[in-house]
Amino acid sequence: MSKRRVVRRKGVGTTRTYHGPRGRRKPSILVRLLRRVPSWGWWIGAGLVVAGYVWFFYYFFVGPFGFRWRALYGDVSYPEGYEIHGIDISHHQGRIDWDDLKDNGSINKCPIRFVMIKATEGATQTDENFRDNFYQARENGFTRGAYHFYSVHTPAEQQAWHFINTVKLENGDLPPVLDVEHKPKSQTDEQFKQSVLEWLDIVERYYQVKPIIYTYFRFKTRYLNDTIFNQYPYWIAHYYVDSLEYQGPWKFWQHTDAGRLPGIKGNVDFNIYNGSYYDLRQMTIGSQETIGVKAYSE
């Protein structure tokens, strides 16, 4: 039962209800929940924190991202035993200072021998820097090649003809390249293989040379591992490793996307050729025997 108390201030009498001692503030919901955690729960929490630190250390300094971290901020590592080096470029490299690249660019103290250049994507897109890059690569003495990025949104035939109508390969150029990294969800594995083969067949018939297939090795072993694809030269993408896990034959190896060179702002992909410079030149259009098929016509 409450009591009545008279409080007087400056001669004025007022009354208020007295409820006893003021109560303590209730703890927050978070504090109350933490109080309910048993002692073994704290040990589990501490273990998770330690595991998080271990994962962080592995991911950034030991695992695949660690290789990228060291490639970006540490000493550059190059695959051993290869002397023929090259790069691949697109509009992502911006405007290239070709004189600086030609005069001062080298990879692992070896000259840059070849440049792969993005030309087209899908059935309508053309890389905005393709024509200038393609011209400058030849003018500055590099063995050049052009690649098409395969789209999952348009038919293979349309993509093939878009590449053909855009890229005028000449004697001394490397064979056309199909960069395929994704499979359409709407296609079965078999339908996808047939679409890739359709692009390869149309382009091969037109240029009279077998195109190069570019993809990362897990994609190839998953989707393009049929023996029919082994007849095409393989350009493998496998970053930040000292040796390849892929056991099949290959011609090119894109081993990092964190290269730096004079004349190019930002990072650029580094590649090696699996052979001598003579072998590389023998691979170019006009340096090999003519394929025994007629030129493709619409």
CATH architecture of the domain at 81-282: Alpha-Beta Barrel
Mean of all residue-level pLDDT scores = 83
Order of helices and strands: EEHHHEHEEEHEHEHEHEEEH
Distance between the termini: 102 Å
Beta strand count: 12
CATH topology heading of the domain at 81-282: TIM Barrel
Helical coverage, percent range: 25-40%
The major pleated sheet works out as:
8 strands, mixed, barrel
Number of helices: 9
**Global structural class:** alpha/beta
Strand order of the largest sheet: 3-5-7-8-9-10-11-12
As a percent range, the share of strand residues is 15-25%
List unreliable stretches of 5+ residues.
Answer: 57-74, 290-298
Shape: globular
Walk me through what this model shows.
With 298 residues, the chain is α/β, with parallel strands linked by helices. The protein has a domain at 81-282: TIM Barrel (Alpha-Beta Barrel), CATH 3.20.20. It has helices at 29-36, 39-61, 64-73, 98-104, 130-139, 156-166, 189-207, 217-223, 277-282; strands at residues 3-9, 12-18, 85-89, 106-107, 110-121, 125-126, 143-149, 177-179, 212-216, 234-237, 252-259, 268-273. The strands form two sheets. Strands 3-5-7-8-9-10-11-12 form an eight-stranded mixed β-barrel, surrounded by four helices. A two-stranded antiparallel ribbon has the order 1-2. α2 (39-61) crosses α3 and α6 (156-166) runs parallel beside α7. 31% of the residues are buried.
Q: How do the helices and strands line up, and which of them pair or pack?
A:
Elements: E1 3-9, E2 12-18, H1 29-36, H2 39-61, H3 64-73, E3 85-89, H4 98-104, E4 106-107, E5 110-121, E6 125-126, H5 130-139, E7 143-149, H6 156-166, E8 177-179, H7 189-207, E9 212-216, H8 217-223, E10 234-237, E11 252-259, E12 268-273, H9 277-282
Parallel strand pairs: 3-5, 5-7, 7-8, 8-9, 9-10, 10-11
Antiparallel strand pairs: 1-2, 3-12, 4-5, 5-6, 11-12
Region (Disordered): 1-22
Biased composition (Basic residues): 1-11
Keywords: Glycosidase, Hydrolase, Membrane, Transmembrane, Transmembrane helix
